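Quick one, tokens below. Sequence please?
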């Protein structure tokens, strides 16, 4: 499978940051510097909670956060 991006919530400061699923180096939180992901040789191991999968680079798009709920 192609590598996806994941939106990970920092366990320390709740910052939400998009991290490459196969990160080859440790990824640190841009706000507080906590480690969000560490490389394992395959899929990275995430330290924070993965709250969303981002299949492509669409950092400024938030269209999927307002999903229409089917009524009735
Ligand atoms: Zn943080």
């Amino acid at each position: 499978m192609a590598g996806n991006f994941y939106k990970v919530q920092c366990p320390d400061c709740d910052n939400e940051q998009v991290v490459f699923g196969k990160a080859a180096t440790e990824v640190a939180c841009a706000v507080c510097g906590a480690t969000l992901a560490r490389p394992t040789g395959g899929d990275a191991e995430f330290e924070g909670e993965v709250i969303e999968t981002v299949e492509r680079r669409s950092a400024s798009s938030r269209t999927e956060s307002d999903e229409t709920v089917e009524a009735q």
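The two ends are 37 Å apart (CA to CA). The chain has a mean pLDDT of 84.
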